[in-house]
Amino acid sequence: MMVALYQDTVRLFVARHVLDEVERDLPDYAASVRVDPELAVTQWRQRYKPFIRVVDVPAPWGEGSPYVQAVFAQHAVDAPTPRLATALADSYVLAEDPDLTDHGFGSRKSLPLRRQTMAEAHRH
Questions:
Q1: CA nearest 98: which of 108, 88, 113, 87?
Q2: Closest by alpha carbon to 66, among 38, 106, 105?
Q3: d(CA 77, CA 73)
Q4: Domain tally, the chain
Q5: What is the pLDDT confidence band of residue 55, given thresholds at 50, 70 and 90?
Q6: Which residues span the domain enclosing 7?
Q7: DSSP string of 37-79, one letter each residue
Q8: pLDDT score of 36 more than 90
Q9: What is the Cα–Cα distance from 31 to 40, expressed in whole angstroms?
Q10: What φ, ψ does residue 97 adopt, rounded to 5°?
């Protein structure tokens, strides 16, 4: 993904709440998977954050989608992500949060492989 971001062959959009959650939770998450939290935050801020397009998602986006409504009913805080995905369709959602994956947004199987690959790259 990093090569695609650097070559501008993919675009990474996130709802504002996702950016806020990453900034808040990344150090603790990194420590929980035995990655240096300071390194994780530095890598995030230098390699990913500059390429992210942060979107303040309007509530009406996706309001007619049963998938968006299902996420909203389960966990309203996560609703901006499927609203954004609906507005950007065709798109792919990178998510492992069951509030999203249970309703067809992203895949819980894709992120562990990406994390493992990234962790291996940082060890070499």
A1: 108
A2: 105
A3: 10
A4: 1
A5: very high
A6: 2-123
A7: HHHHHHHIIIIIGGGEEEE---TTTTTT-HHHHHHHHH-GGGT
A8: yes
A9: 9
A10: -70, 120
